[in-house]
Amino acid sequence: MEKENAGLSLRSKIVLGLLTPCFLVAGLGYYLLGTTSGMTWMAGVMDRHTRGAFKVDGLTGSLFGGFTAQHLAFNSETQRFDARGIEVDWQPRALLSQELHLLRVSVQQIDLHAEQVSTATTAPMLPASLQLPLEVTAAKVHVGSFRWFAAGSTQPDFVVSEVDASLSSDSRQHRVNLMNAQLPFGEMAGDLTLASASPFAVNSHITLDTTTPRSEKLQVQADVQGELRNLEIKLKAEGAGAHAHGTILLSPLDDVLLQRIQMQFKGIDVARWLEKAPQTRLSGRLDARGQQGDRMEGDGGSVRPEWHPYR
User: Fold this and answer.
1) Global pTM?
2) Contact call for residues 191 and 178 (beta carbons, < 8 A)
3) Per the CB 3.0–4.6 Å rule, which of 59, 197, 268, 277 could disulfide with 242?
4) Contact 223, 247 (CB under 8 A)
5) CB count, 10 Å around CB of 99?
6) Low-confidence ranges of the chain (pLDDT < 50)
7) Dihedral angle of Cα 50, 56, 62, 65, to the nearest 10 degrees
8) Inside any domain, residue 216
9) Total number of domains constituting the chain
10) Which helix (H) or strand (E) covers residue 16, if one does?
11) Is residue 303 part of a domain?
């Protein structure tokens, strides 16, 4: 009997030669996605490739589960985005079903800086579609503080804190459910639905609970309907002895943002808002249209004061 040849057969060598690159790719993929050092290396590559326009620092965890980042920044010609204290927990397996399922997203602080643009810019244009390639669900989103800075400003022009929300998006629409947001003048909650296809229908309801300087409760409700080019906001306010309702027409993509405002109000007591002012109940109406240069023209309506200096 002939002695069997030692070593691998030709067939085994061919199979091994074909599988070796697959093993290498799988190992490299695990290193890049499944380890902190791999994600840090990818972040450095993106930083160099974008010449510093996109930067991530302080990565820990892996893309196979939860991960955190100390700092994320993105710069463009018109704005600068800066986020700190980022935590993400998600389900990677959902990608096999073409879904991005985020269990929890938490960001300690987000700063958005508008940049000064020296050259003339063209009028903003809406895209052909707002549909995303994946269905997206974010069950819990928390932002500790969001600050917006106007161009050249060193102090925030708008601040909102303790934002709690959930997000979802499919082929038809995007939905936001805002459970809570703290504004300098009150607490806001509401919901928003935006269609993915043109003309991008909008439907939203927002409630703002605030107080007067005398700690009297006031609630403002806003119902928003229309399309991204033209929005109608129906307002209703009640509290502190006052009542108001009206309609605001907005055109976000036009040179004149505020197209028209119509308001009716009654029972507004100036003394409840201004310290040492006499008790004066104001009632009236307003009807004005927006003009170029942030001007308003129209019928100022009538204001009927009722003086109560001795109450």
Assistant:
1) 0.78
2) yes
3) 268
4) no
5) 14
6) 1-6, 12-13, 15-34, 307-311
7) -100
8) yes
9) 1
10) helix 10-34
11) yes
